[in-house]
Amino acid sequence: MVNYTITTAIMGERPKVTNPNKGFLETLTEKGFTDMIEHFYSEVLDSQIAHFFPDDEAELEIIKTRNGSYFMMMCGGDERYLTKYDGIFDQIKTHEMFSIPDKARTEWLGCWETVLKPLEGKVSDEDIQSYWNWLEVFSKHIVNYENDRSTYEDNAKTK
Ligand code: HEM
Fold first, then answer.
1. How far is the centre of ligand 1, averaged over its atoms, from the C-alpha of 95 (Å)?
2. Which atom number of ligand 1 is nearest to the Cα of residue 143?
């Protein structure tokens, strides 16, 4: 059984991150991984954090490609994110232009849960768990906006 528990992020905390097992990408294959990223973004665009992302399809495609490439690299894939996109990735800098409360992180992780569940049985629970744990912990690093856990960024802006 995969445990999709979400623990609360404390703003400013940077818990230690462990990369996902290589087996996650190995079993999924590069094609499967890319399909998973597609699925994830379709969930995101249908979620309460859709407003964080561009409406423009071409812009979104670029984000998908770059994000997918980075995630694949973190799962033990090649270094395409670094070589192709010249991307020395900085988790904090990439996201600091957005106000991200823990509520938005929770919604983002919820999209991932929807995407990962259908992979159960195809990829081992252990490998999915390692990927989930990486998402759950690393996403804490970018929470940069205090909220009462019932409002989203749009509401927060009007305060
Ligand atoms: C493990 C956690 C996360 C990682 C490793 C991550 C990583 C990334 C990467 C690699 C990109 C593409 C950057 C590029 O263009 O090169 C990206 C973009 C983005 N991420 Fe995250 N992300 C995480 C969590 C989140 C969460 C929780 C949100 C909440 C809303 C979020 C919102 C965004 C947005 C809005 C963009 C698009 C930026 C743009 O418009 O250029 N991310 N992220």
1. 6
2. 27
Beta bridge partners of 101: 145
**C-alpha to C-alpha distance for 25 and 137, rounded to whole angstroms:** 19
Task: State in Å: Cα 92 to ligand 1 middle.
Answer: 10
* Per-residue H/E/C for the chain: CCCCCCCCCCCCCCCCCCCCCHHHHHHHHHHHHHHHHHHHHHHHHCCCCHHHCCCCHHHHHHHHHHHHHHHHHHCCCCCHHHHHHCCCCCHHHHHCCCCCEHHHHHHHHHHHHHHHHHHECCECHHHHHHHHHHHHHHHHHHCCECCCCCCCHHHHHCC
Q: Please say if the pLDDT value at position 155 is more than 50.
A: no
In the chain, what are the domains? 22-147 (1.10.490.10)
Distance in angstroms (rounded) separating the CA atoms of residues 123 and 116: 10
Query: What ligand 1 atom has the least distance to the C-alpha of 134?
Result: 1
Tell me the pLDDT tens digit for each residue of 82-109: 676 666 788 999 999 999 999 999 999 9
Buried residues in 104-132 as b, exposed as e (16+ CB within 10 A): bbbbbbbbbebbbeebeeebbeebbbbbb
Q: Which two tokens stand for residue 151?
A: 């409002």
